[in-house]
Amino acid sequence: MTDIAGYARIVDEAAARATAIPQLTREGDFSLEDAYAIQRASVARRVERSERVVGLKMGFTSRSKAAQMGVFDLIHGRLTDAMVIEDGGIVDLGRFVHPRVEPELAVRLARPLKGRVGIAEAWAAVEAVAPALEIIDSRYEAFRFSLVDVVADNSSSSGFVVGAWQAPPADPSNLGIVMTFDGLPVQVGSTAAVLGNPVRALAAAARMLAETGEGLEAGSIVLTGAATPAEALRPGVSVRAEMEALGMVGFTVAPRG
Q1: Which pTM was predicted?
Q2: pLDDT tops 70 at residue 84
Q3: In angstroms, rounded to a whole number, what is the distance separating the alpha carbons of residues 154 and 15?
């Protein structure tokens, strides 16, 4: 039997202390269902420390990345209020092990969303949208991990910055995005990279949570998935992402102490 509580303690402490750990799967095999159970238990530990779950992040929304990992469905992780970074704020790399950043479309729900829903129903539940940057951080040594390792480690979700919320556009399926480091483009892409339309990722979030009797509540924030490959962060860099029709979001990494 998989030691859910024991593994949850390991990944939770690794995230809290920003320390690298060996792959969990080196200790023994476990299923994807076990990995999500570990994720839920580790986030429950955070809630016990007074953190509040505010939403969900979606992963493997890029078909090419999913195929590379041998994955045939999306994955998700939990967002808590302790992961929020202020737009224009300062990020301390000491909080992370292998920090990378990627631009995404964030959505905020006006009403609950649960179960199998179509794109139109999912989009109708959206109250507001914003450009966002997600900081992902695998806590595994040498940046080596399997799919179930990733999921158990909250799908690498570590921090996020959301720009100004605004009314949803009629069609979010092909919004251009440029991410810059110190004003120089490092990634250029489009929301079309997210399953052809990021609303599909939102619908998938509702479907996947329903499998464990959960749902997205009104006010939930969903990061719909990376629109470009991630870039490794370095001390002192100014990170910005500009999304077509939605404006800009950014932060600055603190210089090395």
Answers
A1: 0.96
A2: yes
A3: 10
